[in-house]
Task: structure prediction
Amino acid sequence: MQPRTSIAWLAATLAASTLSLAAHAADPLKVGLVLPMSGPFASYGKQIEHGARLYLQQSGGAIAGRPVELIVKDDTGVAPEISKRAAQELVVKDKVDVLGGFGLTPSAFAAAPIATEAKKPMIVMNAAASAITTKSNYVLRVSHTLPQLTAPIADWAVKNGIRKVYTLVADFGPGHDAEAQFKKTFTAGGGEIVGEVRTPVKNPDFAPFLQKIKDIKPDAVFLFVPPGEQTVAFMKGFVERDLAKAGIRIVATGDLTEEDILDAVGDNALGLITSLQYSEVHNSPENAAYTQAYYAAYPKDRPNYMSVSGFDGMQLIARTLEKTGGDATGDKFLAAARGLSWTSPRGAISIDPDTRDIVQTIHIRKVERVAGKLQNVEFDAVANVRDPGKP
Result:
């Protein structure tokens, strides 16, 4: 009797599993993106949404046999309460399977408890403070952390004759992370920090800071401010006050010269050295295919690292659900996603099985004019960079 019982049990289990998979395949997969679609950081939301929709366009609008419904909610930028409310609405009202997006760190911090309570996978597609993945066990990141970008550029600076640096960073989580990591790596290599300042996240007046930097005369400024209007304003002031003529250089994370604002910065950006995981002219077949598809879909825009994060966020969902048979249940999703690896338009990437952060190559780039267009030309790289802000 025992063998028959075991066979019957196995048959029943397989039948139930088949029915479960069929049910998952029949249900639409709802992905909710919390993004800044208006306000000063609207370009972040636009790029991330572009990348996500481009992936769906290429996948026929379905993932693991499930048609995908993408629901976008605008959190307007640095507005944690709006981000939290948007995440709650996506979970309770829209009943999404996966949360994603999160353009800025305060947004991700606000939404993390929602992901924990609802046991929903939460995929961070830009927010860059190291601590985000510690705020919920359901958070995964496909973008970068500021320490991950900053350590390579600090190391490059000290190895290339830059001895004295003044740091200027925005006064919020990613800025603090960037400042701490730059100081740690740069001074460990023998460099000296000769001054530092944290600027307001919203509408800073850079004039007094630029004058102080000019008076101190460091070899370089290490800069991190939110990309967009602040980047353009800082670079304009830097040139107008003749800091470059005084021999002061800029080293920065690649947000400073991301493609969506590079044309607005103009020739003031030429020669700038930055570190980032992606460039529009990254030399790989995957990126050639990605940029070609992006130009066709969005001819008025240029692809940047945020769009690639949106694209890879959807890739992560797809590859995870391929392993789970379409099941997006939080704990199953997280278990399947840990350690995943694939080739992105940016290169080889993987999800750290311990921290749920991304592991990737960080490139050192120089702004040059290529075929009449300003581009971040990669000339050095550090492979398999984990987040150095984690143990």
